[in-house]
Each structure stands twice: as C-alpha cells, then as structure tokens.
Amino acid sequence: MQTIKIRCLALVVLIVLASSVFIADGRAQKKGDYLFFASADASEAWVRFRGPNGSGVSPDRGFPVEFGTRKNVLWSRSVPEGKSSPVLTQKHIFLTAHQGDKLVILCLERRTGNTVWERFIPRGRKEFEHALNSAAAPTPTTDGENVYAFFRDFGLISFSPTGKERWRTPLGPFSSLWGLSISPILVDDKVILTVDQLSNSYIAAFGQADGKLKWKTERRGFALNHATPLIRQTPNGHNEILVLGPQQIVAYHARTGDQLWSVSGLGAGSVGSPLLSGHVVFSVSNAPETTPSFEASLQKSDKNGDQVLSPDEFSNDENPPVLKAIGDLFGNRDGVVEAEDWRQAWQEWSGKSGLFATALESIPSSAKTEPRSLWTYARSLPRVSSPLLYDGVLYIVANGGILTALNPKTGEGFKTDRLRGAIENYFASPVAADGKVFLTSESGKVVVIRASPEWEILAVNDLGEDSYATPALSKGNILIRTSKTLFCFGKN
C-alpha cells in the first residue's frame, strides 16, 4: 500500500511539473521562455505574433479546408480598424484596434466571439505611417492570462483578464519611414520591445509585473525593420533574443540586454520575421534595387535653389523623417542634406536581398566569431510576409501570388508557381497545421494548400474583405481578421 501511495504521489508531481513546461524545439522549457513548438494545450501556444516562438505552426488537427462567410463559420463579429493579429489564451482572444482618436484593446470570448471587455486608450499623437500600416499594427502578446500591447502613438500597456489596467509605460515619439510595427514578445518575466527607427534605435526589456524598464540597449540607426524577434536557448541554458537588421542578425542576452554576437551580410530592411529550427535561423531581408535620386528631391523640395535641403524645406518631401535622419546622422550632422550626405546614407542602407539560412550550432553565449552561412536564395522574395518552415519544407510567398517551396537544408527550390485564384499581393504571413498551409491575400482570399515539396492547391476561400493580419490557429479553429471582421472558422 505504501508503494502505491508513493507511486501516486510521484505521478501527481510529474503532472504538476508537466503543466509548468512546454516542449520547444525538442526540449522542455519553462513557461516564461515562450519557446512553444508543441504544447499539450495549444490554446496557450498562440500567445504572440505567429504563435509558437513566431513559427506560424500549430500542432493541432481538424482544421477545415473550405470555409467562408456562409460555410464552416463558427462565429464572426465586427471589429474596429487595425492590422494586428489575434492572440489566444484558453478562454480569451485579445485584439488591438484604433477608432478615431482612441486606441482599443478588445478581450473576446473564444467560444462565441462575444465581448468580455473593451478598453480605450487616448491616442496621444499621430505619427507618420505608410498607407499600408496602421496605428494598431503590432500584435499584442499574452502570458496566458494578462495581455501586453504596444501602440506607437502611446507606448506599452497591460491589462488583466478582467480588464483591469495593470500598468502603462508611455514611450516615444518615434521616427520611422513607414511607422513602427514590431510586436512585443515575452521572455524571462520581461516584455521585450524592439524599436527600429531612423535614429536612436534600441531594444528594451520591461518588467512583466510592473512595466518598469529593466535594460535598454542601443541599436544601429537608420533602420527600416519591422521583424518581430524570436527566442533561442543557448547550449549553456540562457535565453538569447534574435533580432533582424539593419544588415545583420543580432543576439542579445535576455537577462542583461548585452549584445552577444552578430552576423552581417543581410539587406537593410527586414519586414518578415525570422524562423528558428534547431540551430538554424531563416531570415528574409530586402535592399533597395536602386538608389533614390537626390536630384529628384532637390527638384521637389529645394525652394531657394542652393542645391542642398534645409529642415524648413523637408515638409515638401514625401518622407520628411528620412531627410531629417540623413541631415542629423551623416556628413557634418548639421541637419542640412547635401549630395554627399545623401550618398553616404544610401550606401549605409545597402546590403543584399535574399532568404538566408544561418547555422548557430557552434555559437556559445560569449562568441566573438560570426555564425556560419549555409545558403542564400534570392528569387521571388516576399516583401512583407515571413517565411514558414513546416514538415521539412520552407515556404515563401511573394507579391503576385508566387509561392516557392524550398529544401531548408540546401536552399534548393522544390516548386515555384502562382497561387491560381489569388494572384495578388500577400502581406499576412503563411501559417500551417494538420498537413495544410494557409495563405491570406490582400483582398481576403485564403488559399489552402497541401503541405508538400510539390504542393497543390486544395481550396481558395474568398472572405470578401481586405486582410493584412496573420491568422491564428488553435484546436481546429482558424481566426482571421479582415478589414472589418474577425472570423472564427471550424468544422461544423
């Protein structure tokens, strides 16, 4: 009898321990690490942009192939404007939006889509943004209970599951070419925020419990990046934050913010977020094909014809933050843009476009040498969407609906073809589950393909509204945000 009791107690201990860890990349990790790769409860895996450590992959099954406004829709509801993606807890959905001069955080019931609570935050300012961007572009994150959101027109804020404000940390203003849209992530009881902008770029950690600054590390300026970081556990057991750009991959110590290593050779602009598989990181970066003409800017903005651009002339230009950054950071840094300043700036914003595979297996936490480049692929690159690695195949989707499947070990192309029925732009990143890949086009067509080196289209589902947000996958349900609606699809 005593033996039976001991065995039962041991079983209880194992269950408790199992409930506090998640499997990530074949290793057990503390819940705070958020290196989800597979989870006993997938509802708690989609807690950040693109789900488990930004992979875009759900371990669940039972997702529908065909769905739409009248087919396999479990519920739908109108939502305010925004381009952030939904994140999930066991019971709730968190979504950000903006409405007039207010920023919005929504907490919805997963089962019905009904509003649990809605909180409005005053929009302190309206920063410059590209037409395809949004004041609610960054995706929030959750620890399974509380929500953490970043708005570039406000800063960071956190709410409890009941809608009580836990803390707020105002940040900014910022200087960005297209408007900041990097999403926050959680690691080691910290909220990590990367602020890549034209000047004064940084990465910072804030306390998950109180929002107070824990560390802040300066990053290279003149950055045009929008890639959300991921987490890597090193061989000696601590967490690294892997961040793209400009022109490099950089690793920071999650506890201290210290830069540990970097690898150069990338383009200056990284919009799609990186992927980590074992000890290989996959990243996409883009460099300008041609240098913009300084003469064209002079013709447009040089009011007095002195062949330089002064701050009072910047307002006539399409992108005044760029000219201000060039004037402040290049040449004699007097705020005035001359031809040589322009040349130096755009030489800085150079590099190589491509999909890069970089091996990290030999990089300890204090390495001073660069990781090893495995291969580079430079055709049909995505401009905004992130790559996807699923069942041994690496996928990228370029504008024009060009889908490429590659061998992740060699970079060799398996198949490149158009997504017939949805040949258009793709801003949402692909996601995968249950042997299928889901790709959402700008006009709201969701192409479902059979995951395979020789992929094939299974269905094209038209939602009838533009879509820029990446879907969330959990427990056989597909959550997709369009310009006006949040849909939950599942097998009826």
The name of the CATH topology of the largest domain is: Methylamine Dehydrogenase, Chain H
The amount of helix comes to: under 10%
Second rung of CATH, namely the architecture of the largest domain: 7 Propeller
Number of beta strands = 34
Rg, Cα atoms, Å = 23 Å
Calculate the mean pLDDT score and round it: 85
The N- and C-terminal alpha carbons lie at a distance of 48 Å
Shape: globular
| Major beta sheet summary | 4 strands, antiparallel
DSSP strand (E) fraction?
A: 35-45%
Can you tell me the CATH superfamily of the largest domain? YVTN repeat-like/Quinoprotein amine dehydrogenase
CATH class of the largest domain: Mainly Beta
Detail the topology: elements first, then pairings.
Elements: H1 2-19, E1 21-24, E2 27-30, E3 73-78, E4 87-88, E5 92-99, E6 102-109, E7 115-122, E8 141-142, E9 147-151, E10 155-159, E11 165-170, E12 185-187, E13 190-195, E14 202-207, E15 213-218, E16 230-233, E17 239-244, E18 248-253, E19 259-264, E20 275-277, E21 280-285, H2 294-301, H3 320-329, H4 339-348, E22 354-359, E23 372-377, E24 388-390, E25 393-398, E26 402-406, E27 413-418, E28 431-433, E29 436-440, E30 445-450, E31 456-462, E32 472-474, E33 477-481, E34 485-489
Defining traits:
Methylamine Dehydrogenase, Chain H; 34 strands; mainly beta; 4-stranded antiparallel β-sheet; 3 domains; disordered N terminus; 492 residues
